[in-house]
Amino acid sequence: MTSNTIQWGVFVALTLAMGLATWWQVRRMGGRSSDSNSEYFLAGRNLSWPFVAGSITLTNLSTDQLVGMNGNQMLLLAWWELAAVAGLVMLALVFLPIYYRNNCTTTTELLERKYGSKGLRATVSTLFLLGNVFIYLPIMAYTGALFLKTMFESGPPLIVMAGGIAAVGAAYTILGGLRAVAVYDTLSGVGVLGMAAAVTILALAAIGFDFSGIPTERLSMVGGPDSPIPWPTLLTGMIFIQMFYWSTNQTITQRAMASPNLREGQKGVFAAVAIRILFVPAIVVIPGVCAYKLFGDLGDATYGRVVAEVMPSWLSGAFAAFMAAAVLTSYTSVLNSSVTLYVCDLHEPYIAPKPDVKRLNTVISLAFMALSIALVPVYSGAASIINLVQQLNGLLSMPILSAFILGLAFRNVDARAAMTAVVFGVGLYAVFTFVWTPIHYIHLMLVTLIACLGVGLAVNRWVFGKSASLGLALGGKPIPAAVP
Question: pTM of the full predicted structure?
Answer without folding.
Answer: 0.86
